[in-house]
Design brief:
The complex is a heterodimer.
Chain A lengths: L2 E2 L2 E5 L2 E5 L8 E6 L5 E10 L2 E6 L11 E8 L1 E4 L6 E4 L15 E4 L10 E2 L4 E2 L4 H4 L4 E2 L6 E3 L5 H11 L3 H5 L7 E10 L1 H13 L6 E7 L10 H14 L4 E7 L1 H14 L13 H9 L3 E3 L5 E9 L8 H9 L2 E5 L1 H5 L6 E8 L2 H4 L9 H25 L6 H18 L9 H12 L12 H7 L2 H10 L1
Parallel strand pairs in A: 9-16, 14-19, 14-20, 15-16, 15-17, 17-19
Antiparallel strand pairs in A: 1-7, 2-3, 3-6, 4-5, 4-7, 5-6, 8-10, 11-18, 12-13, 18-19, 20-21
Helix pairs in contact in A: 11-12, 11-13, 12-13
Chain B lengths: L12 E7 L2 E5 L7 E5 L4 E9 L2 E6 L11 E8 L1 E4 L6 E3 L6 H8 L18 E6 L6 E2 L4 E6 L5 E5 L7 E6 L2 E4 L5 E3 L4 E2 L3 E4 L8 E3 L10 H6 L7 E5 L6 H11 L4 E7 L3 H10 L16 E6 L5 H20 L3 E7 L1 H14 L13 H9 L3 E4 L5 E10 L9 H7 L4 E2 L4 H5 L12 E2 L2 H11 L4 H25 L6 H18 L13 H23 L4 H5 L16 H17 L3
Parallel strand pairs in B: 8-21, 19-24, 19-25, 20-21, 20-22, 22-24
Antiparallel strand pairs in B: 1-2, 1-6, 2-5, 3-4, 3-6, 4-5, 7-17, 9-11, 9-14, 10-13, 11-12, 13-15, 15-16, 18-23, 23-24, 25-26
Helix pairs in contact in B: 5-6, 7-8, 11-12, 11-13, 12-13, 13-15
């Protein structure tokens, strides 16, 4: 290994150096500053004679006399089952004061794409205990379902609730010989306080021992954020596909990740795409999100819940927009519901789970699940529409039918969505609450539910009570 | 992908620089669009720029670890696909490498690099039945025999378009591999079951004709209001979650094409897996055979190399054209063309080209129109007729249709199915907005529907369109004053429009029966709603209050026609009940 003292240019997170040997693209670099500090980086562009290096820990302290070493390999994550229970920094070094990690294997952090032929279609229902998710936007194993949120909203609480409560009902009852559950938490640029919240919750619930935590905090170098999720996902893939764990990966906050991408793009003077974000951001995000999934013949699975805060609550911003095009749905955390005190403040209308249809129904959740959720969507949407109208003409001007839809929308938020962050509802409970609400309407109004199911689940007394009230 | 077999290999070069999928090479003697093998691992790439002694190559695989100084080997040939029996029931990546073969060769669930595989199995033997005899004269494009490719499709072996043609001097019959000569000509040319064709070049045809037959999709809103012709082009733009992919899947499943080529371009891995798992189990509505027997899949998911995403739509359409040459009607679905455009943008920005709108290259419009222009209803060079219909999904950022990819696509395609996030939010599926969408094929297809479905097909459609238009206007008033402030006849119109939306426009893709709706049923549902409309207005004129009219038991049954298998009887009974119940009131 040769050492160079040939740095020609330092610009933002980038360092350019002259070399006289062939340096591979993506190769790892160590830069030693005159003060003796070692920083790691990666080759972004390799030409004959000159390489561009992206430095993870920031370029502060590097000068033209710093020495550059090329390690001859791409960035690797040391993986082992012993990682469970450990807290690492954004580059994968332990920061919990525990022993050195003795890797079983070292995996390239730029994961290879899963061959679509080798994938297994995800259709195992995960019960999160949150009605707005289980009932209306069901999560399944191997799915990537992001939380679209805004600054100041309780997305972290929701993510924690899911991480805490997630189970697969059938396996709970049956043999325990199945796979174990693990949580991988990748924090990118979150504040120390937020990090503490997560850590305290992990410790309080004992979840830490089945978790691996990667921490890149707000004051850590931004460029490091581009490696943190890759480290986390490489660990997840190892645990899932080689050690048979069912892994839930929580990545927060993807917005900070994308900001880091933009920073590097700008430093490289690239032609920017929308709003200054690099043109390859879709591809880059896809390389993270697509690492969720199941593989035929393997026990484990990787399920992803990335969290992102939408700048200005705007879901047409490139970050949520590109994310939505890659992930299999999204859960919206809503500011209005939050200020009304609904917990968790999930707005089901724009939320969606694309893999829901195959994960629910008879034998998976319950036979009436799809119809109930469809009907509630339609009814809630109609009620929501009428709310605008009520503001103008008042309730009296509306027909009896319209008033029922208004009542439904109110009750839906109060009884179905608002359950608190500590309530764990089974899917049966969730659907039963759904029927309580739907039975406000006459049977003929339930045009999305199969007639046989109406006969079976419809609450006669509910309708009578409503009529008596009227 | 085709191997370099000819002895035209030109001078090789060495790598000068590497930046993601873009590699430059020095001293490489190559033509534009030649395929090259890059580095010690032999990663496949394509020449996209030549400047002085520096040649720029886009590489179809990951380039991590590739270093300057490594060799670049030129094949001297452009990017081609292998054409021949075995393409149906297959699944390829963007450069036509069969994914199942890759899985086997790599012995891993993850895609490794530097592994190549031919697009069709060179060792498999096919039963060849000749259709020509010795002494006959054959010309380029002529069919010389057939091969049963799948249970559904008879593969026609043709004289390649670039042959001279001549007198047949020898004909074989029986089991052969795709590389065996089966027909010999007096010119010395040997016809095999295998052809190669450069993907960026359209296969020749005699004439492009005006399409006059619909591509029946079994989707009510498409067949009924916005039909596409066999040989037509359509775009489905929509924000995420509005149902682009479900619509594309529905078309791939139910469209009455002979062959379906499905290109998953930069989309989700799980979606492709769904297709791979579902299609073999689904029945082709035309033949009852498994759907895969007529389908060729190209899956280049979003995390697979970006350059291969750029090429996958070309690979798809070349395969489609090959089956068109045999006289088949082919439908190609590309999901999504925006990802293809983004791949162009990514490569272009790595080349540091001057960007056009929103960073897209200036040649975006040209590339899009070139691609869609390869669709059409053709008279082939062998005098058969065949068609390629192209249906492209577009994923506009933020659902904003004014962005370059949507706009440039709309300038070319003749059918526009606008997906609407609002409709999707209220679970109105398919979420196709009936006010914004259009089809320019309507008039030229009406004669077909009139002849094959019903005399008054066009009239009753116009009635439905008018009611929906009126509803749109009335809704604006309702938003201000409430429904009850409207006059009674307008309230009734709103009710009829509601049934049009719920019973006719909405269709449940996940219901076993409702998922496919034949044109006669599409028409039947409209007549049922029209019958309700006519009787209801008659009752209103007779002085029956509007609440009583809309309250009849029979009316909500309109919404259940879609899920009926015996819809014919159901509609007749329903019409009778509606008439009876309404006439009772006056």
């Amino acid at each position: 290994m040769k050492e160079y003292q040939t740095i020609t240019e330092i610009s933002g997170p980038l360092v350019f150096a002259e070399v006289d040997e062939a340096i591979g693209y993506d190769e790892i670099v160590e830069i030693e500053t005159p003060q003796g500090e070692t920083k790691r980086g990666q080759v972004l562009e390799s030409s004959e004679g000159v390489v561009a290096i992206q430095v993870f820990e920031g370029t502060t302290g590097i000068d033209k006399n710093a020495s550059v070493r090329f390690l001859g390999e791409t960035l690797k994550m040391p993986v082992t089952e012993d990682l469970l229970g450990r807290v690492l920094d954004g580059s994968g070094n332990p920061i919990d004061g525990g022993p050195e990690i003795v890797p079983e294997e070292r995996h390239d952090i730029v994961g290879a794409a899963i061959n679509p032929v080798s994938r297994e279609y995800p259709e195992e229902f995960i019960q999160t205990g949150v009605s707005a998710i289980d009932g209306m936007n069901t999560l399944v194993r191997g799915q990537k379902l992001p939380i679209f949120s805004g600054s100041g909203l309780p997305h972290n609480e929701l993510a924690l609730q899911v991480a805490r409560q997630a189970t697969v009902p059938e396996e709970e009852e049956g043999d325990e010989g199945g796979s174990e559950f693990a949580v991988i938490f990748g924090a990118m640029g979150i504040t120390q306080e937020e990090a503490n919240e997560f850590m305290e919750d992990f410790e309080r619930t004992g979840a830490l021992e089945r978790s691996v935590v990667f921490m890149n905090l707000a004051d850590d170098p931004a460029v490091e954020r581009t490696v943190t999720p890759r480290m986390a996902l490489t660990t997840a893939e190892y645990l899932a596909f080689e050690k048979d764990y069912h892994v839930l990966v929580i990545l927060t906050d993807m917005t900070n990740y994308c900001e880091a991408l933009r920073e590097i793009g700008a430093a490289r003077e690239e032609v920017p795409g929308r709003r200054g974000y690099p043109g390859y951001m879709y591809t880059d995000l896809a390389q993270l999100y697509e690492r969720a999934g199941r593989i035929e013949g393997r026990e484990g699975s990787v399920t992803q819940i990335p969290i992102l805060t939408m700048p200005g609550d705007d879901d047409t911003h490139p970050i949520p927009d590109l994310t939505g095009y890659i992930t299999e749905g999204q859960i919206y955390v809503d500011r209005d519901l939050n200020s009304q005190g609904v917990r968790p403040p999930v707005n089901v209308l724009p939320s969606l789970s694309r893999l829901m249809d195959d994960g629910i129904g008879e034998g998976l959740t319950r036979e009436d699940h799809a119809d109930v959720s469809d009907q509630m969507y339609a009814a809630y949407a109609e009620g929501e529409d009428l709310r605008d109208l009520v503001n103008i003409v008042g309730r009296e001007a509306l027909s009896e039918r319209d008033n029922k839809y208004l009542d439904f929308a109110d009750r839906f938020e109060a009884e179905f969505v608002d359950q608190g962050f500590d309530t764990d509802r089974s899917i049966d409970e969730t659907l039963d609450i759904g029927w309580d609400l739907l039975s406000m309407f006459p049977k003929a109004e339930l045009n999305r539910v199969d007639e046989e199911l109406i006969e079976k689940y419809y609450r006669e007394e509910e309708e009578e009570a409503v009529e008596a009230e009227a | 992908m085709s191997q370099a077999t000819e002895e035209t290999v030109r001078e090789d070069g060495i790598i000068n620089s590497v930046s993601g999928p873009v590699v430059t090479a020095k001293d490489l003697d190559a033509r534009m669009n030649d395929v090259v093998y890059v580095g010690h691992e032999g990663l496949m790439g394509e020449v996209i720029e030549i400047e002085g002694d520096i040649t720029t190559v886009q590489v179809y695989e990951e380039t991590s670890g590739v270093a300057p100084g490594e060799p670049v080997e030129n094949t001297g040939e452009p990017l081609t696909v292998d054409l021949g029996p075995g393409m149906l029931d297959a699944i390829y990546d963007g450069v036509q490498r069969p994914l199942d073969v890759l899985e086997e060769k790599m012995d891993s669930a993850f895609l490794d690099r530097g592994v190549d595989a031919p697009g069709i199995d060179l060792d498999e033997e096919w039963e060849f039945t000749p259709e020509v005899e010795e002494g006959e004269i054959v010309e380029p494009g002529d069919v010389v025999g057939t091969v049963p490719e799948t249970v559904t499709i008879e593969h026609k072996v043709m004289v390649p378009p670039d042959f001279e043609g001549g007198e047949v001097v020898a004909v074989e019959e029986g089991e052969f591999t795709v590389t065996d000569a089966i027909v010999e000509l007096d010119t010395g040319e040997e016809v095999t079951m295998h052809q190669e064709w450069p993907v960026r070049e359209a296969r020749p045809a005699q004439e492009k004709k005006t399409p006059r037959t619909p591509l029946v999709s079994g989707q009510r809103i498409l067949d009924g209001l916005f039909p596409i012709a066999k040989g037509g082009t359509a775009a489905i733009p929509g924000p995420f979650g509005s149902g682009k992919t479900v619509t594309q899947h529905q078309l791939a499943k139910w469209a009455d094409a002979d062959i379906v080529v499905y290109v998953g371009c930069g989309e989700r891995g799980n979606e492709m897996t769904e297709v791979i798992e579902d299609f073999p189990e689904l029945e082709d509505p035309k033949t009852g055979n498994p759907l895969m027997a007529r389908t060729s899949l190209i899956a280049n998911t979003s995390n697979m190399p970006v350059a291969a995403r750029e090429s996958c739509v070309y690979t798809g359409i070349t395969i489609a054209e090959f089956y068109r040459d045999m006289g088949y009607d082919v439908a190609l679905m590309a999901d999504s063309t925006s990802r293809w455009a983004e791949a162009m943008r990514e490569i272009s920005s790595r080349l540091e080209e001057m960007p056009g709108e929103e960073g897209y290259p200036a040649y975006l419009a040209a590339r899009l129109s070139e691609f869609y222009e390869r669709a059409g209803y053709f008279e082939n060079i062998n005098d058969t007729e065949g068609s390629v219909s192209v249906i492209g999904a577009v994923s506009p950022p933020g659902g904003d249709f004014s962005e370059p990819v949507t706009q440039n696509t709309l300038r070319i395609v003749k059918t526009f199915w606008a997906l609407d996030a609002d409709l999707a939010e209220r679970r109105h599926f398919p979420a196709i907005n009936w006010n914004e969408s259009y089809s320019l094929y309507r008039e030229q297809l009406d004669p077909w529907f009139t002849e094959n479905v019903a005399e008054d097909w066009a009239d009753i459609r116009q009635w439905a369109v008018d009611v929906l238009d009126e509803e749109g206007e009335l809704q604006e008033i309702v938003q201000l004053v409430g429904k009850d402030a409207l006059p009674e006849d307008q309230q009734l119109t709103l009710e009829v429009a509601r049934y049009l939306r719920e019973a006719y426009l909405q269709q449940n893709a996940f219901h076993d029966t409702d998922t496919y709706c034949e044109p006669a049923k599409t028409y039947g549902i409209l007549t049922a709603i029209k019958a309700f409309n006519d009787e209801a207005f008659r009752a209103l004129e007779a002085g029956v209050p509007v609440e009583e009219i809309t309250d009849i038991d029979a009316a909500p049954r309109l919404n259940r026609i879609g899920v009926q298998e015996d819809w014919d009887e159901y509609i007749e009974a329903l019409k009778d009940d509606i008439t009876e119940q309404l006439r009772e009131k006056y």
